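S.,

As promised, the magnesium ion run. Input:
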Amino acid sequence: MTGIRLEHINKSYDGKELAVEDLSLELKPGSFVCLLGPSGCGKTTTLRMIAGLERVDSGSIRAGGRDFDVPGKNLFIPPEDRNLGLVFQSYALWPHMTVEDNVAFGLKMRKTSPQKREKLVSDALAQLKMEPYRKRYPAELSGGQQQRIALARMLAVEPEILLLDEPLSNLDAALRLEMRSELKRLHARLHNTIVFVTHDQLEAMSLATDIAVMSKGRLEQYDTPMNVYRKPSTAFVAKFVGNPPMNMIVFNQGDIEPWMYKLREEVSARRSIAEPERINTIGFRSEDALVGGGNDAGRWWSQEVRLDTVLPTGPETVLSLMAGHFSIYLITGQDCTLTPGEGTVISIPYEKLHLFDAGGFRI
Ligand SMILES: Nc1ncnc2c1ncn2[C@@H]1O[C@H](COP(=O)(O)OP(=O)(O)O)[C@@H](O)[C@H]1O
Ligand SMILES: [Mg+2]
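Predicted complex:
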């Protein structure tokens, strides 16, 4: 197993704006790391630098004791010598080659012996349950099957590191779920180090051992999925991860209502924060609020609200509520007995409130 260490990486394409800025990441051997963030935040650039398809401007990438890219020492290992497997969103199978020839292609390039090649191809196809299709051409396969072949082709060369760039985003929802399980099973069996790029927070939550959340070329948080969700380091992470997104009361924008100031005073007193003004944002998750009063008054913040709309999703119900002019989303497992326009009270334990300063950092 091979770990990867990125240290203080900077990268710009045009010499001006940085696509990746001062990025440091240590990927433990055998970890399944998701690079997560909105479009344009530098995920693909980071992956391509690990692959060696892009050079870093400054900083270093090392893996398994080898200097992948260290411009300061003029060291660079080309992509084909890094022992990695790559899969992109577009599977790029050769249309004129059968499934087995597609999977064998990389091995032929490496001049692997025909006997060994046959075994590696069969093993890789078996891993992805695609053996029955080995004589077919890509055009005779569904999108999901083509993506399986792309994965088999990657596995056949026995890479130490797997790099995947949004490999599931062209698949429909049911297939995507199936392929997520497939990838997780593969990882559990092979223990390769995986770097997986996605803009889908649910995908990252369900796959990763560690998530690196990026925004505008910078690392916002690098942590376990549960910590990213439960203890977001920044207001950006809090808002980006979770559906519905975290409810955010922001004090330097929009209309600030008296109940918001009161909440800020109360939470400051409880957390021994000397200057309440330091708190710029108060957030809480939809599932951490409940309709009705908390049972231990001192532990809960309660707020009068008015029901706006009810949005049933099947297993649970999303309630849209108004506190003054501020809209709050709340998830409940119970059926809603309120009618729109009706008043009620919601309660949230004080310890479930997330506080951020004006720089967006968690207090
Ligand atoms: N080949 C390129 N030439 C110039 N700019 C690029 C190139 N590739 C990416 N960029 C820019 O770098 C930034 C990061 O892009 P990218 O790494 O593709 O983000 P992501 O994969 O997170 O969507 C964006 O501003 C993008 O426009
Ligand atoms: Mg990308």
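The chain has a mean pLDDT of 92. Residues 13, 19, 37, 39-45 surround adenosine-5'-diphosphate (ligand 1) (CB under 6 Å).

- D.
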